[in-house]
Amino acid sequence: GYIRIELFDEDYDDDGDYDEETPGPTAEGGPLARCDYDPCVDMQVPCAELQRATSCLCPGVSGEDVIPEQPRLWEVARVSGSAARVHWCAPPSTVDGYRLTYGPLGSPANASTQRLPSRARLFTLEGLTPGTGYRVCAVAYNRAGDSRLAEEDPPGPESGFGPCATFATMSGSALTLHISTAAVLLLLLVVACALLGCFCARRRRGAAAGPPEPSIGLQNPTYEEDKAGRPRS
After folding, report:
1. Dihedral angle computed from the Cα positions of residues 64, 43, 91 and 153, in that order, rounded to the nearest 10 degrees
2. Looking at the predicted structure, is the pLDDT value of residue 178 above 80?
């Protein structure tokens, strides 16, 4: 009681070509390469400029009318008693610039850096208090607003997952110990260089003087006669 109707397309090809993937964008007959872009490199050229120059592929980026996603705080390094260098990575968003907010642990961030350029990925915080724990956050902004901060901090300053991290400045005693150790190592290096210089100078003087000449003395005739067994007169 059923009627089977089969429809065929004239352009239908039964060779299996329809299973092949659609090729991506190409340049001069070949696939486009990814742009040499690293979101964590300081003073990184924007990927859009690289794309205009080399016709490469850029990662997806949200528009300037969308609030930026969170930057990724990579590490806090070179921590001393009063300074620390902060390194972050750019988000996949249109960013006009960055700023860092920071403050002692247990209190809200009460300090902020000046607005940093969109290519910046490094900044050194100065004027910190020795022996104090701090929380620092990287904020990206554009005309739509500022990126949001993390509700909870990652487990350490080098996790590289969120926009915030914690670190502690060196105490006065630890700083003194580091300075003393560096001074002792420097003194030992100077002494070693001085000893090496003296040793090399002595070798050069010895080489310039040449081998020692044989000594020539007057012979004792009496001694020679006794040695030959002759009677003395």
Report:
1. -130
2. no
